[in-house]
Every structure is written in C-alpha cells, then in structure tokens.
UniProtKB/TrEMBL annotation:
Family annotation (Pfam families): WD40 (PF00400)
Xref: CDD domains: WD40
Source species of the chain: Bos mutus grunniens (Wild yak)
Gene3D superfamilies in UniProt: YVTN repeat-like/Quinoprotein amine dehydrogenase (2.130.10.10)
Protein name per the record: WD repeat domain 86
Key word Iron present: no
InterPro entries xref list: WD40/YVTN_repeat-like_dom_sf, WD40_PAC1, WD40_repeat_CS, WD40_repeat_dom_sf, WD40_rpt, WDR86-like
Alphabetized PROSITE patterns for the sequence: WD_REPEATS_1, WD_REPEATS_2, WD_REPEATS_REGION
Record keywords: Repeat, WD repeat
UniProt key word Transmembrane: no
C-alpha cells in the first residue's frame, strides 16, 4: 500500500480548529480561518506566519485569499477584507443576520451565503450590498459563479449558483437578483457544487448520496450519479472527470459527460472531507485525521500522511508541498516529491475558484492509534 509521509513543518499557532485554508493565486501565501475567531497569513516559501488577522467576534467559517487582499467570513454575521501585507482590516461587510457560511470573490464582486437563507452580492470596493438573492427555504451553504464569457448574453452580468439545505440549488441572475432557475431533484441538503469550465453545467453533491449534473441555463437535470452509500461532502472537477468524496469513506471518479463511474478510491477509515487534484495525484483529507495521495489514473494508494489528531477540513498543494488544515488547530506541511507520474504533465484543477465544500467538523472525534 502507500508509504508514510512525515511533516516538513507543523504550524500550531491557532488556538482552535482550522475551518478553511486558501492559497493565493500567485502561490506565495496561505490563509487559514479558525474557530479561535482569527485568520492567519502564512508564507509558502518557509511556512512562517506573516500576519494575524484579528477582529471577528466569533469563529471564522471560511476564507478566500487574493494576491492583494484577504477575505474572511464568520459566525458573527460579518465578512471582513484585510490587507495582506499589514494584516489591517480594510472593510467590514454587514448585512447578514446569521452565520455567513461561504464567500466567493470574482469579477470585482464578493458573493456570500448564510444561514439567514439568503445569498448576497457586495461591492468589493465600497463594502455595500449590491444585490440580495432571496428564495431558499433554508440555509444557503455553497456558492459558484459563472461570468462572461461563460454564459450567454441573455444573462449578462453572470450567474450565481447556490446550494441549500432545502434540497435545491438555485441559479440567479446577478444583474437583477432574480431567480433564473431552481434545480430540483435532490432529496437531501446540497452540500457542495462545482461548475464546468464553460460554466453551463453544475454538479451538485447531497446528503441523499447522489451527485447530479444540471444545465444551469435551462434548469434541466442532465444525469444522476448513484453509487455512494453516504452523503457527498466534497467535489472536484478536472479533465472532464468528477471526483466525489463521501461519508461512505470513498472517493469515486466519474466521467462528467456520461455519469459513468470509472474508479473508486478506498482506504479511508472515516468520511472523506477534502479533495485536491494535482499533477496526476488525487489528495484526500479524512475524518480519520489522515491525508492520502492516490495515483489518479490507477487508483493506487501512494502515500499516507499521519500526524493530525482530528478531521482534516481542507487541503492545498503548491509546488512540491501539501498543506493540510485540521480541526486540531494545526497547519501541516508535507513533502510530496516523487508522487507525480513521470509521464503526466501537471494539470490545473478547474475548481479552485468554483468549488466550495461544507467542512466536516462534526465528524471530528478522538482517534485510536493506527
């Protein structure tokens, strides 16, 4: 089976679990958001903490790092924008009336989803609400954005896709705030979603153990991926393949265009909570506190990364380093040299911007030694 991997560095500065980990587009910085109410900026060059972002009055649920600014959202109902060089808070976005679950920065707009059953679009520069998207009957969990030229001129201004615990996804016209389509078919909460490169197809994962593909312009359900035996927690879309991580302890690989299941990745001892495809390798994070590296083509387990004490909530890969963030409060850096298949050129994941998943903090529990 896979060989072991030892941590290059362990960053244990946070005083609470890390809920999300974001990599800047230029690959120079990492941003972590924590249960301790703070976020931290880290250098990918040496793993040192560059800045402590303090100001939220409750835990940080999610974060997104851009080259010039960092964005965090929190259970305190606010979103904050930060200077990545000084750590100073530049803007506070107020308006949501409950926990803010997710944020997404695109086309100089900030999109957010909340337990208050709404999604919102904000002006990044002014910090004001530009549009409210109301219609979900329960909390809005996940977001994806399709902007020009991904969608037709008929929906100029782009489309926002939201997934909710009301078992639907909705497609919104950003310019007007109107609901363009409601995607009905799931029988459980929509936990995660990704959009394809052209932006016309959405893939949603649900507690009903299915993945579904939708045409976001017509609202038509295109296909249903049925083989999981538990909630679909995270999705990754790359090279016309959909990877789905589930509470059934497996990842499945599907052909995006047909729904055919081509591979199943096993070896996890708990729910699969995070996925990242990088250079021919599929990295996974699990509720069993381990990260794993699989050969994406064959499904063979290549390496197991042991050291965390609780569920791994998020993973990123940059260069030859794997970054894992856990509910144990630690950010760990791992050497992944020697994993990439010799014949495979590095392939860029399509879901860095579009993919959002629900953390599996609830799955965290003390583990027995291996």
């Amino acid at each position: 089976m896979g060989g072991g991997g030892s941590a290059l560095r362990v960053c244990a500065d946070h005083r609470g679990g890390i809920n999300w980990l974001s990599l800047s587009p230029d690959g120079q910085r990492l941003l972590t958001g924590s249960e301790d109410g703070t976020a931290r900026l880290w250098s990918t060059a040496d793993g040192t903490c560059c800045a402590l972002l303090q100001g939220h009055e409750s835990y940080v649920t999610f974060c997104q790092l851009e080259d010039e600014a960092a964005f965090t959202c929190s259970a305190d109902c606010t979103i904050r924008k930060w200077d990545v060089l000084t750590g100073q808070c530049l803007q506070v976005f107020r308006g949501h009336t409950s926990i803010v679950n997710r944020i997404l920065v695109a086309d100089n707009q900030l999109f957010s989803s909340s337990y208050d059953r709404t999604a919102r679009a904000w002006s990044v520069d002014r910090g004001q609400v530009a549009r409210e998207f109301r219609g979900h009957r329960n909390c809005v969990l996940t977001l994806a954005y399709a902007g020009a030229p991904c969608v037709e001129e008929a929906v100029a201004g782009g489309l926002l896709v939201t997934g909710s615990t009301d078992a639907t996804a909705k497609v919104w016209q950003v310019a007007s705030g109107c609901c363009h389509q409601t995607l009905r078919g799931h029988t459980g909460a929509v936990l995660c979603l990704v959009l394809d490169a052209p932006g016309r197809t959405a893939f949603t994962g649900s507690t009903d153990a299915t993945v579904r593909a939708w045409d976001i312009l017509s609202g038509q359900q295109l296909r249903v991926f049925r083989e999981h035996q538990g909630s679909v927690i995270c999705l990754e879309l790359v090279n016309r393949h959909v990877y789905s991580g589930s509470a059934d302890r497996t990842v499945k690989c599907w052909l995006a265009d047909t729904g055919e299941r081509v591979r199943t990745f096993t070896a996890h001892r708990h729910s699969v909570s995070a996925l990242k495809y990088h250079a021919g390798t599929l990295f996974t994070g699990s509720g069993d506190a381990r990260a794993r590296a699989f050969d994406a083509q064959s499904g063979a387990l290549r390496r197991v990364f042991r050291g965390h004490a609780f569920v791994i909530n998020c993973i990123q890969v940059h260069g030859q380093v794997l970054y894992t963030a856990s509910h144990d409060g630690a950010l760990r850096l791992w050497d992944v040299r020697g994993l990439a298949p010799r014949a495979a050129a590095p392939k860029r994941s399509l879901s860095r911007l579009f993919s959002n998943k629900v953390g599996c903090a609830a799955a965290a529990a003390p583990l027995q030694p291996a």
